[in-house]
Write a structure and sequence with these properties.
mainly alpha, 10 helices, 4 strands, 50% helix
């Protein structure tokens, strides 16, 4: 996500979230995205997310899309798209998303929190197909970047990119990247094994519903 195409259309077009970004930046990015972004968002709106009171998502556009074709077909689509992107995009950390990332770390440290950055597992067929074609170089670059930031900010890094790190199933994905709930639970369990207090709020922190 540290490429020049971040943030995504959903963030830019959401009035609540986009207000935290400079208006000129939002306008410029939306013009680059074009009308296709609106079409995709409207398609998702026709299939709204269903979320329970405790925050668990029962249904959302990604899980609905996962009913189209087989997992292998969806993963193959991700492979094709990723390899196409890798051929065009250089291996680099784009300044805009990296600046906001650093600002977020600084804010969290300021309220007494030590955040944990988790590189989530990728679907193994997907990872195997892209590993030597651009992913490995980008992975090394991101880890080096995070290590550099650890000299400035207080945060943990857990690399669970390989599914074996959480003992998950290749079938526990909607596509090449998005985790099904069972795999997400394995990731949370793996985090807590390494950092038992990863989700503990810093003393004095308040959660507001406003």
């Amino acid at each position: 996500e540290f490429d020049e195409y971040s943030p995504g259309a959903a963030l830019l077009e959401d009035p609540f979230l986009s207000r935290f970004l400079p208006p000129s930046f939002v306008d410029a990015r939306l013009k680059r995205l074009g009308p296709s972004a609106n079409t995709l968002l409207l398609a998702g709106a026709r299939r709204p997310s269903v979320i329970t009171p405790d925050g668990f998502t029962i249904s959302d556009p990604i899980s609905v899309a996962a009913t189209v074709g087989s997992l292998r077909q969806r993963v193959n689509g991700y492979i094709k798209g990723t390899l196409s992107f890798y051929r065009k995009a250089p291996v680099q950390i784009d300044p805009a998303p990296s600046r906001y990332f650093a600002m977020t770390l600084r804010l969290m440290n300021a309220i007494g929190a030590r955040p944990t950055v988790v590189l989530a597992p990728l679907q193994p067929w997907y990872l195997a197909a892209i590993y030597h074609h651009g992913w490995e170089a980008r992975h090394r670059r991101v880890l080096a970047y995070l290590h550099e930031l650890q000299g400035v900010y207080r945060f943990n890094v857990l690399d669970f990119s390989r599914l074996s790190s959480v003992h998950g199933s290749a079938m526990g994905f909607y596509d090449g990247e998005h985790l099904r709930p069972a795999t997400t639970r394995l990731v949370v369990e793996a985090i807590l094994k390494v950092l038992p207090k990863a989700f503990v709020l810093p003393i004095g922190t308040l959660i507001s519903s406003s």
